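Protocol step 4 of 5: obtain the predicted structure for the target chain.
Materials: sequence only (see below). No template structures provided, no constraints applied. The aim of this step is simply to have a reference model before the mutagenesis design in step 5. Sequence pasted as it appears in the construct record:
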Amino acid sequence: MGALPLLLMSSSLRSEELPVNRELKEFLRLERTCREHAAIASFELEREGLLKVAEYYRKAIEALERRPTADSPRKFPLPARRGRPL
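Step 4 output (structure tokens):
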């Protein structure tokens, strides 16, 4: 029983990071699937459409990879708080 709160607390520390990883894995899978289906497509229009969708997924993947995580340092430091503390 004592380990349960610790487990919940440690998993909540990375809660911001998990959805991004899940999205990234899903987009990678979908991009690969589109490219595989494009490789065996019998119609040119079908092949072009699948490759275009795969390209959209590639752009989304690159955007997710560029997105800063909770652990990465900030480009600009946060301003100092002024006034009385909350």
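Step 4 remarks: Residues 31 and 54 are 5 Å apart (CA to CA). Confidence is low (pLDDT under 50) at residues 1-15.
Proceed to step 5.
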